[in-house]
Specification:
Radius of gyration: 27 Å
Structural class: mainly alpha
Shape: globular
Distance between the termini: 38 Å
Strand content: under 5%
Number of helices: 28
Length: about 550
DNA sequence: TTGCAGTCAATATC
DNA sequence: GATATTGACTGCAA
């Protein structure tokens, strides 16, 4: 049935998900005669028949369907890389190996392509071409990624970091040369890799590249060469610029311009980067804890109170949610590795198992750990929280109301899970607001609390409004505590895909001593995040459940 | 329209 | 100078 459907109503490539593309790749392979026998083990392990390398894949694909990068460029020739090693029929397995064993480097990048135009090796300086991938190879890589078996992202980054540090190679060079990413991205990637199963096709690319690079026996030398070339180029430029006024031409490629001497005048046009003051961040965090997904109205309120642009507030929430998620993952991994005999360091794998399902799960588990206690702890006790003056008293006072208002009713303490949806919170808001102002305001935000802000919106989620947030922001407080609780309740249901996991997560959720207790102080911040994350999970759950079902959720 | 993933690039920090 | 952090942006999916 699926085949029939697919053959009669194929979706355009651009609309297909990674998974959805799989059948088409298979078909293309099959058409090309590459898919020999058997099934392509997409997941890797088996050895299957086939697939040369991605590269090869690529070609076929291109011929047949893809538009065409007209330029296979010379470099194309290079592309052979990937496949070269394993020629013919290999299956994904081969891919795996490709990635895992030392095979001939895929130079996709570095060498491979660069050669093209620039290459004149020595020439210049401009070593460049930062981006390794270009047409052909890029595609190859994509294919490779598509067919790649699960990789241990954590292990890969770990190894990369080691190699880089051992050889005194910088992230910038590595990123621009091998990954085609900027230093900041590389840093982030190396420090907080996401588990393979949570990465999109695009997100996996850097990991595949890293793995390939690790497998390249000459990887270090190549980078070193690049480094040298860069240096040379830099010096050259520098000299020339010194002698001449400023010849600086924006060197086309690469790397260097970053630092070198290019003054770049026009930059003036750029708008200055917004830097949030610590108080503002705190306020936003509090707001987040109250409501990870604030309504437009709430956002607006926050923006006003903090004297920020709404877009800034929106961005902040997006970034915060996303970063918290990642941190949770990392934590989980680390915890896992510790817990688990540390044997395998492969987080991804671990994560995979651990939190196979949705992030929610994984998250839950984690959070759960600190869950209830954690949440509170942090807030109240947490370093950051503590800091806040408001926290203390205010919270206490607030506590009551908040409970209600808080979307997350469940709050650990009081309201038992029963309170299904967060809705209740709303009203509460009303009262809470009073205290709001202070915190938020500090720096720029003059308008403190707009007192009793608006009335609470109807919707649970949306419901809580600025008032609540502001309150929390301002006073900080109380809410958070709840968070932990609520979430806990919610989470379980949410994620809990696998029974096993579920169990564990539940455990943690309920703050089994071990977890919570175990955590060291430094976790506080993490706890906070986790707590917040729980909120978001809850939020999503609720959303998903769409009001009617809350009832069913038993925790 | 909203949320997210992935990045960039300006800053901050080491 | 290298690395880490983080606000903003782009593209995509639901």
């Amino acid at each position: 049935g699926s085949v029939s459907d697919m053959l009669s109503r194929p979706k355009p490539w651009s609309k297909l998900t990674q998974k959805g593309r799989e059948p088409f790749i298979r078909m293309q392979l099959w058409l090309n005669g590459e898919l020999g026998q058997g099934v392509l083990p997409v997941q890797g392990q088996q050895q299957g028949p086939v697939l040369h390398s991605v590269t090869s894949l690529q070609d076929p694909l291109q011929q047949g369907c893809v538009s065409s990068e007209s330029t296979p460029k010379t470099s194309a020739s290079c592309s052979p890389a990937p496949e070269s090693p394993m020629s013919s029929s290999e299956s994904v397995k081969s891919l795996t190996e490709l990635v895992q064993q030392p095979c001939p480097p895929i130079e996709t990048s570095k060498d491979g392509k660069p050669p093209e135009p620039s290459d004149p090796p020595a020439s210049d300086s401009q070593p460049t071409t930062p981006l390794p991938l270009s047409g052909h190879s890029a595609l190859s890589i994509q294919e490779l990624v598509a067919m790649s078996p699960e990789l241990d992202t954590y292990g890969i980054t770990k190894r990369v970091k080691e190699v880089l540090t051992d050889n005194n190679l910088g992230q910038r060079l590595f990123g621009e040369t091998i990954l085609g990413l900027t230093q900041g991205s590389v840093s982030d990637l190396l420090a907080r890799p996401k588990p393979w199963h949570k990465l999109s096709l695009k997100g996996r690319e850097p990991f595949v590249r890293m793995q390939l690079w690790l497998n390249d026996p000459n990887n270090v030398e190549k980078l070193m060469d690049m480094k040298r070339m860069e240096k040379k180029a830099y010096m050259k430029r520098r000299h020339s610029s010194v002698s001449d006024s400023q010849p600086c031409e924006p060197p086309s490629v690469g790397i260097d311009y970053s630092q070198g001497a290019s003054p770049q005048p026009q930059h003036q046009l750029k708008k200055p980067r917004v830097v949030l003051a610590p108080e503002e961040k705190e306020a936003l965090k509090r707001a987040y804890q109250q409501k990870p997904y604030p309504s437009p109205k709430t956002i607006e309120e926050l923006a006003t109170q903090l004297n920020l642009k709404t877009s800034t507030v929106i961005n902040w929430f997006h970034n915060y949610r996303s970063r918290i998620r990642r941190e949770l993952f990392i934590e989980e991994i680390q915890a896992g590795s510790q817990g688990q005999a540390g044997a395998s360091d492969s987080p991804s794998a671990r994560s995979g198992r651990a939190a196979p399902g949705s992030e929610g799960d994984s998250c839950d588990g984690v959070e759960a750990a600190e869950g209830p206690g954690a949440a509170d702890a942090e807030e109240s006790g947490g370093p950051a929280a503590a800091a806040k003056s408001q926290g203390g008293p205010a919270e206490a006072a607030a506590a009551p109301e908040e409970q209600e208002e808080a979307p997350r009713p469940a709050e650990k303490a009081q309201p038992p899970p029963t309170s299904g949806p967060p809705a209740a919170a709303d009203d509460a808001d009303g009262e809470g607001r009073a205290r709001a102002a202070p915190a938020a305001t500090r720096p720029r935000a003059p308008r403190t609390a707009r007192g009793p802000c608006q009335t609470p919106p109807p919707r649970p989620a949306a419901g809580e409004d600025a008032a609540t947030l502001s309150r929390s922001a301002a006073g900080g407080g109380p809410c958070r505590a709840r968070d932990g609780a609520d979430r806990s309740s919610a989470l379980p249901s949410t994620s809990a895909p696998a029974a096993a996991r579920r169990a564990s997560s539940l455990q943690s959720l309920f703050g089994l001593p071990e977890a919570a207790g175990a955590r060291d102080s430094r976790d506080n911040p993490l706890r906070k995040k986790k707590a917040a994350n729980l909120n978001s999970i809850i939020h999503r759950l609720e959303k998903a459940a769409s009001r009617e079902e809350p009832i069913e959720w038993e925790f």
